[in-house]
Design goal:
This protein is mainly alpha-helical. The protein has two domains: 25-87, Winged helix-like DNA-binding domain superfamily/Winged helix DNA-binding domain (Arc Repressor Mutant, subunit A, Orthogonal Bundle); 89-137. The protein has helices at residues 2-16, 27-38, 44-51, 55-67, 89-111, 115-137; strands at residues 42-43, 71-76, 79-87. Strands 1-3-2 form a three-stranded antiparallel β-sheet. Pfam families: MarR_2. It comes from Mangrovactinospora gilvigrisea. GO terms for molecular function: DNA-binding transcription factor activity.
């Protein structure tokens, strides 16, 4: 199931590449923009926890996105050493354009499915949302290396 979801996401990105103006953004950059969109004024450490990344990795992403004009860093009123993150208008427009393009792609693809398949997908959405929450709230899982190299 996760493999299928990942394949769908990769295909979506390939199909939509170039449909939204501006420089291409990597997955981690987009994830950070979504976190900031959901939590305007979020701090760096909290964003790092939300993304399950090291704070220095998130700081690098913040710098990249700020340089692209996508992220604004504002002083934290309670801590002069910290910053609060907000989307710029350019980022808001970019995310809206991405969502619109993604919706058009989904509508076009869904229109080519059989009615029974569309019904099955719609019926599965609540269970998929529950799975998403369960994965998000669960513990991190350590990757165990396999001996496939031999």
């Amino acid at each position: 199931m996760f493999r299928t979801a990942a394949a769908l996401r990769r295909l979506q990105r390939r199909r939509l590449r170039g449909s939204v103006p501006g420089p291409p953004l990597r997955g981690a950059q987009l994830e950070l923009l979504h976190v900031v969109e959901e939590h305007p004024g979020i701090g760096v450490a909290t964003a790092a926890r939300a993304l399950r990344l090291a704070p220095n990795s998130v700081s690098t992403l913040i710098r990249q996105l700020a340089d692209l004009g996508m992220l604004a860093r504002e002083p934290d009123p309670d801590d002069g050493r910290a910053v609060r993150l907000r989307l710029t208008e350019a980022a808001e427009r970019r995310l809206a354009a991405w969502r619109a393009a993604r919706s058009r792609l989904a509508a076009e693809a869904m229109g080519r499915l059989a009615p029974a398949d569309r019904t099955a997908l719609a019926a599965a959405l609540p269970a998929l949302r529950a799975l998403l929450s369960a994965v998000e709230e669960g513990p991190d899982i350590a990757v165990v290396p396999t001996d496939d190299a031999s």
